[in-house]
Specification:
The complex is a heterodimer of chains A (192) and B (158). The relative contact order of chain A is 0.13. In chain A, 78% of the residues lie in helices and 0% in strands. The longest helix of chain A has 31 residues, at 101-131. Chain A has 192 residues and is mainly α. Chain A is built from ten helices and no strands. Chain A has helices at 2-14, 17-24, 28-38, 40-54, 64-92, 94-98, 101-131, 139-161, 175-181, 184-190. By secondary structure, chain B is an all-alpha fold. Chain B has one domain (4-155). Chain B is built from seven helices and no strands. Chain B is elongated. The relative contact order of chain B is 0.14. Classes of the chains: A mainly alpha (192), B mainly alpha (158). Chains A and B meet through helix 3, helix 4, helix 5 and helix 8 of A and helix 3, helix 4 and helix 7 of B.
Chain lengths: 192, 158
């Protein structure tokens, strides 16, 4: 049911003139994608410094909260640019993206990373007074930072693999993969 | 100096055998390249934006530079190692690609700039240096590394 709804939505986006224009333009799609990838250096770069501080391996002599607060703004600017360009990339190729197993895993990881970030931030604000100046923060903070780095690395990795057609709907795939990727027509064709 | 013999060798090396035969391995290495690029970008930006007095203004700039330098070198090692592996998959194509040479030129320039100019200069107490020299170093550094990354992405489009 959800797969059908998502596909219908993607097909509706695909009828938009702007979607086709971006997809078929000689340079626009490349510019958007290049901006999306290069903004990684701002967003993930800042996040990397914050998480490495929470792991206790960089800036041990600077309070952790200071690093997190000061780098938060550029990181959020990077995130907003990545979200806008990411939506435009999806908008340009909505049907294939919706039926990409990698895109789907990426969205799940994005949600998990966002939940982890909010929980991490709340915990940090509640308890930072006790460990803010420690060169190596407590284990629970380090675990949160490690989870953050792993989840965002997963987002980058799955984002990159969207370009590969290993599990595209036109390939011969197991039924589970058709379902996971949302290959509605291919699943219907398999039904007796 | 013509580097054709090197690319010719790389194209038939064991690295090329692996990168051409196993798309999955290539993709995994490419991911490390992207993650390394993100880390490198973060270290460059945090360091240079501090030199420009935009970020971490209440942390001594010497401290920021000292902390980011080590991780910059780690990120550069990740990017270069994964980059050589990725190049082996399309060595001859890259040899004839102008954007690849733009990236290599800017990369060479960036490495020289960091290890020959930026680091030795910033070893001095920053308040003993001309503020405009520090700002010029920061802007040059950001410009060079942005060019490296942008040219790298554009190889895929050219």
């Amino acid at each position: 049911m959800l797969n059908e709804l998502l596909l219908t939505f993607a097909q509706w986006l695909d009828t938009h003139k702007w979607s086709t224009d971006i997809h078929e333009s000689i340079y626009m799609y490349s510019w958007i994608e290049a901006t999306h990838v290069l903004t990684l250096m701002i967003f993930l770069g800042m996040l990397c410094v914050i998480d490495l501080r929470m792991l206790g391996v960089i800036f041990p002599n600077v309070p952790a909260s200071k690093i997190a607060e000061r780098l938060d703004k550029p990181m959020m600017i990077g995130l907003v640019v990545m979200l806008i360009t990411g939506f435009l990339l999806f908008y340009a190729i909505p049907v294939r993206s919706t039926q990409s197993i990698w895109f789907r895993i990426k969205v799940v990881l994005l949600i998990l990373a966002a939940i982890n970030a909010f929980m991490f931030r709340a915990k940090m604000q509640a308890s930072s007074g006790t460990w803010d100046l420690d060169p190596v923060p407590p284990k629970r903070v380090r675990m949160g930072a490690a989870a953050s780095l792993l989840l965002w690395s997963g987002v980058v990795i799955t984002g990159r693999t969207i370009a590969y057609d290993w599990f595209d709907c036109h390939k011969q795939l197991p039924h589970f993969m058709y379902w996971a990727a949302g290959c509605v027509n291919e699943m219907a064709a398999l039904e007796p | 100096m013509d580097l054709y013999p090197f690319f010719d060798w790389l194209d038939t090396s064991m690295l090329a055998d692996i990168s051409k035969a196993y798309g999955g391995v290539f993709a995994v290495v490419q991911m490390f390249h992207l993650l390394g690029m993100s880390m490198l970008g973060g270290m460059v930006l945090v360091g240079d934006l501090r030199l420009l007095n935009i970020l971490l203004k209440d942390v001594p700039s010497e401290l920021v530079i000292e902390n980011t330098q080590k991780w910059f070198t780690i990120a550069l090692a990740i990017v270069m190692t994964s980059g050589i592996f990725m190049s082996s998959a399309v060595a001859m194509k890259l040899y004839y690609n102008e954007m690849f040479w733009a990236k290599m030129t800017s990369l060479g320039l960036g490495i020289t700039f960091v290890y020959v100019i930026r680091r030795p200069l910033l070893k001095f107490k920053h308040d003993t240096l001309n503020p405009w020299t520090i700002k010029l170093v920061a802007v040059t550094s950001i410009s060079i590394w942005f060019t490296v990354a942008a040219a790298g992405r554009w190889i895929g489009f050219s």
